[in-house]
Specification:
transmembrane, membrane, mainly alpha, transmembrane helix
Length: about 60
């Protein structure tokens, strides 16, 4: 697998994880329990998106 394809798949996967976490965070009733897992999904997905976009930019320029 080429590095560019791998980075594109990683960005897509991180985006899916982030959107899933945000969806669960919005649809969960906040007074029942502390929504730790959706927060973790949203934050790690966002960090993955930023990191993979930086990697993609390095591949584009270099």
């Amino acid at each position: 697998m080429q590095p560019k394809t791998r980075v594109i798949l990683a960005v897509a996967g991180s985006f899916i994880v982030c959107v899933y976490g945000l969806f669960r965070l919005v649809t969960e009733i906040p007074f029942e329990s502390v929504p730790i897992l959706p927060i973790v999904f949203a934050v790690t997905g966002f960090i993955g998106i930023i990191g993979n976009l930086a990697q993609w930019r390095k591949l584009k320029n270099g």
